[in-house]
C-alpha cells in the first residue's frame, strides 16, 4: 500500500482485526506433509508450476480462491460483477493486513496485476486479456480487459496479491527471472495476507509455516481447518516418502507412488484418497529448430515432419502404460485437457491407435529407415516412471530417446529456455477453461510471450487466428465450438502427443481430514488434524 490518505482508516481497521484474532488462541495442531517436489521459488509470479503454487498459496491470496468444492469463492475481494462487457469490478475486504503488518488496499491489487503482466512473469496466462487494473477507491478495483472475458474471477484465484511497499523496499517490483536463475528477495522471502507465514525454510527439504496472527479469517469461521503449524517436507525418493508415512514421521503424503496404493489400503492406520486429476501428461517435440541438438541426424529436424510425429504417437501403447507402469492410475487420452475443462468434447478425445508397424513405416517414408536418436527430458516426481516406459516404447520402433530425469526446478528452467529437444510435461488447468491451455501450450511462442510453455515451438497460423475469436465470443456454445475447432487443428498436426490424464492418490493417517481435489491442490486452512 502507498502511504497517504487511505492509510489511517486501513491501519485502524487492521489493528482491530489483529486484536480480535489474538484474543482467540487455539490449541497447537501440527500437520507434517510430505511431497515429491519442493517449490522452486517463493516469488508468486515467477513460475506457474503446481508444486510452487502448493507452497505460495498458503502464504499469499488472490482476489478469489478455489475451494474444496472447486468453485470460486471470495478471497481478498468480497464480491465482483461484470459492470460492462470488458470491465469487472471487485469490492475488497476491509481490515486486511499483510503478515508484515502493512495494510492492504486497492493499490496493492493494481500493483500485483501489473507485476503479473511484467515480462519476467510466468503468470501472464492469467492476465492475458487484461488491459489495466484501476483503483476506484481504497476498496474497489476495476479490471479492464481487451475483450469480454467471462473467466476473470477464475483467473484471479491464481494471481497472488503482494504489498507494493514491501516489494519496492525489497527491489522486487517485477517477478524473479526464473528461467535465468535470478536471485532476489522474493525467492526466499514472502509477505502475504494468507492464513500462514513462513517461520523457516530449507529449500528442497522442509518449509515450516505457522498461523498468521494478522489473517483476516482468524476466529470468524472463514476456514474449517485447525492446523496451527504446517511442515511442508520434500522427499524426492518414493520409498523414503512412504516409509515416513508408515513410521508416523509424517501425517500426510501428497504424492503416493502407484505401486504403494494397495499396501496403504491394507493398513488400518492409514487412508487412501483417489480421484482423477485435472491434469494431462503429453509429449513435446522441438519443431522450430533447424536440427535437434544431441541427435545423430544432422542438417535437418525429424520432428518438423508430420510423419515422424505420427510415428511417435503410433509407437505408444497407452493401455499397456496404464496397466503396467501406472497400475491403473491414469486415463489414456487423445485430448490436451480433461473432461473437467470447459471446451472438452468426446470428438476431440480420439487417440492415435497403437501400431508399431505403422510407426516404423512412417519413419522410413520420412527418410529415417533406421530411426534416429534424440535427447529426451523429464522431471523427477509423479511421472518419471512413465517417461522411462515411453522411452522404451519409442526405442522399439527406432526412435532412440536418451532420457535424462532432472530435478523439477532445473527441468522447469530448461523448458522455459526452450532447451529440451523432446520432453514430457504434465499440465493442469486451474481455470477449468480450455483457453488456458490453448494460449500457454498450443499457441505460437510469439503469442504466449513470457507465459508460454510451448517449448516445442509448434505453430499454426489458422490456430492462432482462432484465439482472439475465442476470447471475444460471448455465446458459450459458439465459444466451445471454436475451441473444438482449434483443438482439432492441433491434434491433426500432433503439435504435442497427449498421453494420459493423471490420477494422483494421496494418503494420510487416521485423524487427518483433507479433501482430495481434481486440481491436486490442498489448502492447509481447510485441513483438520486430531
Describe the model.
This protein has 530 residues and is of the alpha+beta class. 30% of the residues lie in helices and 22% in strands. It has helices at 7-22, 50-59, 106-116, 152-155, 164-169, 185-188, 238-247, 261-266, 306-314, 318-325, 356-365, 384-397, 408-416, 435-442, 445-448, 461-472, 476-493, and strands at residues 30-35, 64-66, 72-74, 77-84, 87-92, 130-137, 140-145, 196-202, 206-211, 229-234, 252-253, 270-273, 276-285, 330-332, 372-379, 399-406, 422-428, 496-503, 506-509, 512-513, 528-529. The strands form six sheets. The protein has a seven-stranded mixed beta sheet, sandwiched between helices. It is globular, with a radius of gyration of 23 Å. Mean pLDDT is 93; it is low at 3-23.
Count the E strands: 21
Helix percentage: 25-40%
Oligomeric status: single chain
* Radius of gyration using CA atoms only: 23 Å
- N- to C-terminal distance: 39 Å
**What best-fitting shape do the alpha-carbon axes yield?**
globular
Please give the order of strands in the largest beta sheet. 8-9-10-1-11-19-12
Return the average pLDDT rounded to an integer: 93
> How would you sum up the major sheet?
7 strands, mixed
Low-confidence stretches: 3-23
Beta-strand residue fraction: 15-25%
* Secondary structural class: alpha+beta
Number of helices: 17
Secondary structure topology:
Blueprint: H1 7-22, E1 30-35, H2 50-59, E2 64-66, E3 72-74, E4 77-84, E5 87-92, H3 106-116, E6 130-137, E7 140-145, H4 152-155, H5 164-169, H6 185-188, E8 196-202, E9 206-211, E10 229-234, H7 238-247, E11 252-253, H8 261-266, E12 270-273, E13 276-285, H9 306-314, H10 318-325, E14 330-332, H11 356-365, E15 372-379, H12 384-397, E16 399-406, H13 408-416, E17 422-428, H14 435-442, H15 445-448, H16 461-472, H17 476-493, E18 496-503, E19 506-509, E20 512-513, E21 528-529
Amino acid at each position: 500500500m502507498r502511504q497517504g490518505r487511505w492509510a489511517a482508516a486501513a491501519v485502524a481497521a487492521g489493528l482491530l482485526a489483529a486484536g480480535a484474532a489474538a484474543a482467540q488462541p487455539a490449541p497447537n495442531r501440527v500437520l507434517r506433509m510430505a511431497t515429491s517436489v519442493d517449490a522452486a521459488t517463493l516469488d508468486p509470479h515467477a513460475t506457474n508450476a503446481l508444486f510452487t503454487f502448493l507452497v505460495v498459496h498458503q502464504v499469499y491470496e488472490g482476489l478469489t480462491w478455489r475451494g474444496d468444492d472447486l468453485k470460486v469463492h471470495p478471497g481478498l475481494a468480497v464480491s465482483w460483477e461484470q459492470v460492462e462487457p470488458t470491465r469487472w469490478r471487485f469490492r475488497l475486504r476491509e481490515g486486511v493486513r499483510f503478515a508484515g503488518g502493512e495494510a492492504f488496499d486497492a493499490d496493492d491489487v493494481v500493483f500485483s496485476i501489473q507485476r503479473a503482466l511484467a515480462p519476467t512473469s510466468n503468470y501472464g496466462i492469467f492476465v492475458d486479456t487484461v488491459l489495466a487494473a484501476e483503483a476506484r477507491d481504497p476498496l474497489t478495483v476495476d479490471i479492464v480487459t481487451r475483450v469480454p472475458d467471462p473467466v476473470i474471477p477464475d483467473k484471479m484465484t491464481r494471481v497472488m496479491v503482494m504489498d507494493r511497499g514491501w516489494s519496492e523496499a525489497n527491489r522486487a517490483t517485477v517477478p524473479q527471472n526464473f528461467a535465468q536463475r535470478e536471485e532476489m528477495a522474493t525467492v526466499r522471502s514472502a509477505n502475504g495476507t494468507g492464513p500462514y507465514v513462513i517461520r523457516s525454510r530449507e529449500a528442497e527439504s522442509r518449509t515450516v509455516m505457522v498461523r498468521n496472527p494478522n489473517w483476516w479469517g482468524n476466529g470468524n469461521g472463514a476456514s474449517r481447518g485447525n492446523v496451527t503449524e504446517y511442515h511442508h517436507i520434500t522427499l524426492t525418493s518414493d520409498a523414503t516418502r512412504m516409509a515416513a508415512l508408515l513410521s508416523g514421521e509424517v501425517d500426510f503424503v501428497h504424492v503416493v507412488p502407484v505401486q504403494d496404493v494397495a499396501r496403504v489400503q491394507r493398513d488400518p492406520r492409514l487412508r487412501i484418497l483417489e480421484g482423477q486429476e485435472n491434469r494431462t501428461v503429453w509429449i513435446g517435440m522441438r519443431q522450430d529448430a533447424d536440427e535437434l541438438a544431441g541427435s545423430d541426424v544432422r542438417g535437418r529436424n525429424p520432428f518438423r515432419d508430420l510423419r515422424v510425429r505420427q510415428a511417435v504417437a503410433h509407437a505408444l501403447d497407452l493401455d499397456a502404460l496404464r496397466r503396467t507402469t501406472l497400475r491403473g492410475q491414469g486415463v489414456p487420452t487423445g485430448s490436451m485437457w480433461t473432461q473437467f475443462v470447459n471446451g472438452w468434447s468426446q470428438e476431440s478425445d480420439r487417440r492415435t491407435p497403437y501400431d508399431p508397424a505403422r510407426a516404423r513405416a512412417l519413419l522410413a517414408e520420412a527418410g529415417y529407415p533406421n530411426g534416429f536418436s534424440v535427447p529426451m527430458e523429464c522431471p523427477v516426481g509423479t511421472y518419471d516412471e512413465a517417461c522411462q516406459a515411453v522411452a522404451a516404447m519409442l526405442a522399439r520402433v527406432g526412435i532412440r530417446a536418451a532420457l535424462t530425469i532432472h530435478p523439477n526446478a532445473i527441468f522447469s528452467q530448461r523448458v522455459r529456455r526452450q532447451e529440451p529437444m523432446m520432453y514430457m510435461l504434465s499440465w493442469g488447468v486451474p481455470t477449468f477453461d480450455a483457453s488456458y491451455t490453448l494460449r500457454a501450450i498450443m499457441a505460437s511462442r510469439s503469442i504466449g510471450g513470457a507465459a508460454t510453455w510451448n517449448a516445442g515451438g509448434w505453430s499454426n497460423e489458422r490456430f492462432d487466428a482462432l484465439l482472439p475469436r475465442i476470447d471475444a465470443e460471448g455465446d458459450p456454445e459458439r465459444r466451445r465450438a471454436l475451441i473444438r475447432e482449434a483443438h482439432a487443428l492441433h491434434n491433426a498436426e500432433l503439435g504435442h502427443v497427449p498421453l494420459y490424464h493423471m490420477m494422483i492418490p494421496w494418503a494420510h493417517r487416521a485423524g487427518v481430514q483433507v479433501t482430495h481435489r481434481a486440481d491436486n491442490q490442498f489448502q492447509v486452512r481447510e485441513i483438520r488434524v486430531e
